[in-house]
Amino acid sequence: MLIEFFCTLRKHGLKTSITELMDLLSALEKQVVFADVEAFYYLARLTLVKDESQFDRFDRAFAEYFEGVEQVDLSSAIPEDWLRRSLQRQLTDDDKAKLQSMGGLDELLKAFQERMKEQQERHAGGNKWIGTGGTSPFGAYGYNPEGIRIGQDGSNARRAVKVWDKREFRDLDTDGELNNRTMQLALRKLRKFARTGSAEELDLDETIRATSQKAGLLDLKWRPERHNAVKVLLLFDVGGSMDDFIYECQQLFAAARSEFKHLEFYYFHNCVYEDVWQSNERRFSEKTSTRELINKYGRDYKLIFVGDATMGPYEIAYPGGSVEHWNEEPGQLWMRRLLNHFDNAVWLNPQPLEHWKWHHSIDMMHELMGARMYPMTLDGISEAITTLLKKSVATAPVS
Amino acid sequence: MRFSSTSSYIVADELALAVNAAVTLEKPLLLKGEPGTGKTRLAEELAASLGVPLLRWQIKSTTKAQQGLYEYDAVSRLRDSQLGSDKVHDIANYIKPGKLWQAFTAPERPVLLIDEIDKADIEFPNDLLHELDQMEFHVYETGEQVTAKHRPIVVITSNNEKELPDAFLRRCFFHYINFPDAETLAQIVRVHHPDIQRELLQTALEVFFDVRKLPNLKKKPSTSELIDWLKLLLVEDIGVRDLKASNGLMPMFGALLKNEQDVQLVEKLAFMTRRRES
């Protein structure tokens, strides 16, 4: 029972286990919910998903599974006159003219149903929520089930479709998948990194206890300090030539995020200029000036750049070199300012090491970084971490 | 027995379902959500509605799993031994049961709240795996085995400061308390302030959601802040007109905004809208 459902979830990358499936089944057995799709949705989510960042994935999987189950329901069971009415209400004169050219309403309805079927098949491929083109006669209104208001029909099952189709947890899905073994190892390295820098301290309670257990003979106990001492500021290159590597970067990001108490991240494009931003959608409206970064975060923050450093050399060296905007000062000046402020900094480059020599800009960046650029591999990451933990390294002064 | 909204606490359908499922299947229920969405309140209300005692284990950054089971007070034993007390021969006199022990041995099935589990060390949840799963543990000093008479209803809250280990999550049911929508929020407010004028509530909610929508706010106001704010509005007898007329900061903003930078941000935005309007 529900094996197919379980497999669909796993296919969408949810890390649910058999134990959890058993929990769900026993909940059903005890009739916690009964014959109510919406309640089933909540129950399944409750038992199978353990993190709100996975909710969106769950919604997609659920939609896929249930649309598979209800396909008949949706494409053939929609009463034709209901469709007709709904369409007529919404058609403009323009559409009606097009309608004529398509051979009348009946043809249109047929085309519509075909289109809808096709749309559902494409759901399975995961394209449902990516915007659809506007050339179809239905385009203006949207021909997915929600668009024709199946969702507002009032019946229970249909209302339920809305719940997962809302996908309100989309923003929470920052999680790159970590099931890949090398990333797990990198994570372990980062975790170790997160815990270093904290010295041992005298554990007074334990010492008193141990001493009294030995009836008064002094027995000193030590423990590592509990908090994560390392503070990290991450700067990510997004867009352009980095798109190929975004996936890898996000994995690293997801790994890093859970491990540090003080972890700040910002994005930049190609080279750091006067502004960085935290949200890609709002990158033009909500910027943070790089100067503010320098003022806000202490020099003890470890600065990590993640980027491929593949760009035109003028993007680093000249004012106005940025591909996106007019920069008053060259990127290298901003790089130097950052490097001057932060004691420890490294650059992680997802480009394979052997390609580096083909890009002049990588050379330049490498030099700017004082040779602290490392490939984004396991070894690269551990080398980078070692460098980060060294006492401050001399950097090039602002010229 | 099914848990549902009470006269003082509004619970969303899916949350009620989560609670009922956890109670029926005797699984710990892990609650996450923005601060102020009533995670801790839920445990209190659940205990009250079932008429059972609530045991509350507040986790701090220094809390260890062992403290929830029991603590061996070796220091008083040492002192007693120097004073020549007879108690000293029985080590059980110096074992102090923790919250889990209390919950396991309670005469009726209690609600055990493990509050803010994410505050603790990263290994903390792992140390409790067996105890929460089997509901039993061993006391090394006395060789005693403590087993739960009734499996307590365990509610765990987290503010998402740290990620919890997978093995721990597998043993829990998980529910994320979403921020309530305007309608539910109006319901919640009516429960707390039954005599608030409809219109005032409407306007106040609009202001509240506008503030929440502002980008870059350091701390978004949550339900509990809204309720405090309304209380102030009522006490100070501020009418709808005053609320609308105030074209700078909203009156009594201190209850909503807890951060000086936020206050400045809202002030600046209000100033800009005013200028655009004029």
UniProtKB/TrEMBL annotation, chain B:
SMART domains: AAA (SM00382). One of its GO terms (molecular function) is ATP hydrolysis activity. The keyword Ribosomal protein does not apply. It comes from the Bacteria. Residues 25-183 form the AAA+ ATPase domain. InterPro entries: AAA+_ATPase, ATPase_dyneun-rel_AAA, CbbQ/NirQ/NorQ/GpvN, P-loop_NTPase. Keywords: ATP-binding, Nucleotide-binding. PANTHER family: MAGNESIUM-CHELATASE SUBUNIT CHLD, MOXR FAMILY PROTEIN. This is ATP-binding protein.
